[in-house]
Design goal:
With 307 residues, the chain is an alpha/beta fold. It has 3 domains: 55 residues, no CATH class; 200 residues, Spore Coat Polysaccharide Biosynthesis Protein SpsA, Chain A, CATH 3.90.550.10; 38 residues. The protein is built from 12 helices and 11 strands. A hairpin with a 5-residue loop joins strand 1 and strand 2. The radius of gyration is 21 Å and the shape is globular. The N terminus and C terminus are likely disordered.
Length: 307
């Protein structure tokens, strides 16, 4: 990822000093030579103090889209209308063939980095956005999704420091159905429920330490990431008890056509990380369902002619 280098002696170093100076008004591109200090410094109390003081007010907003001409404008307007302006905006388009790029050009003055190229799915595109991100906290606001108000970034900037800052989420529209998340995200909750990445602000260091989205998933890579962070790594998290985003339910993860894929991938995550799940009836049913599906696949029979 951006800002992570390896010295000749093999010790990894971080670009956080350059990011700190950016908060003070100095451009990162002119400061690459400041990227020198050891990542071990980040674990010190001094680093924690500096990070809390300088970094909490800086965000990277990543927007991923493909042929989103009907919904991309509301996402863009949601971003540019934020009252808190200390953010960068990275847009990753999968080389749309409709009017998406024309609409994005209308907001070009606010977009920090615009990529338009083929990708290998939504999580590959989100990882491309991560490569460009330099902010202390990262939020994914993809095509069709929006912030719940123009004060969301300001609210998150004033929240206590934690590795994950997350809030509740509306579905489809402000004031509509609202999913309220608990203050504690323990294994029992993660086994049964999933978080919405639109309402999560990730400390950028998490991706440096624990990896990015697993692109072998088509729908459940965010679920896999959240379980890795919260169950395995046990990162700190803080719940902002109000809706932060509006989730567009027309996306692939909500499409009934992809229901079987979603169930299969959620099963894969649970089976990998939750030993208790492996002996549950739900797991057994999903295993049987997968086995039956495999039997229904057309077999390739080679006929041997007899002379």
């Amino acid at each position: 990822m951006n800002g992570l280098h390896t010295r000749r002696d093999g010790v990894k170093t971080s670009g956080q000093l350059a990011d700190m100076l950016k908060v003070l008004g100095i451009r990162v591109r002119a400061l690459n030579y400041y990227r020198f200090y050891d990542v071990r410094f980040q674990r010190s109390q001094l680093y924690t103090c500096v990070q809390t003081t300088f970094f909490m007010a800086h965000f990277s907003i990543i927007t991923v889209c493909l042929n989103a001409e009907r919904e991309i404008r509301r996402t863009c307007e949601s971003v540019v209308e934020q009252s808190f302006e200390d953010f960068e905006w990275i847009v990753v388009d999968g080389r749309s063939t409709d009017e998406t790029m024309r609409i994005l050009e209308e907001f070009r003055g606010k977009i920090t980095s615009l990529i338009s190229e083929k990708d290998n799915g939504i999580y590959d595109a989100m990882n491309k956005g991560l490569e460009k991100a330099t902010g202390n906290y990262i939020v994914f606001m993809n095509g069709g999704d929006t912030f719940s108000s123009n004060k969301v970034l300001a609210k998150v900037a004033s929240a206590p420091h934690a590795d994950l800052l997350y809030g509740d989420i509306f579905f489809n529209e402000v004031g509509g159905k609202c999913e309220k998340f608990p203050n504690k995200l323990g294994p029992e909750y993660l086994l049964k429920k999933m978080l919405s990445h639109q309402a999560i602000f990730y400390n950028r260091e998490l991706f440096l330490k624990f990896g990015v989205f697993d692109t072998s998933y088509r729908i459940a890579a965010d679920y896999d990431l959240h379980v890795r962070l919260l169950k395995l790594a046990r990162v700190t998290h803080y719940h902002i008890t109000e809706p932060l985003a509006v989730f567009d339910l027309t996306g692939m993860s909500s499409d009934p056509k992809f229901r079987a894929i979603r169930k299969k991938e959620n099963h894969r995550v649970r089976k990998q990380y939750f030993p208790k799940y492996r002996i549950s009836l739900k797991c057994i049913r999903q295993e049987l369902r997968g086995w039956i599906t495999s039997l229904k696949q057309p077999s390739h029979i080679v006929k041997i002619s007899q002379d």
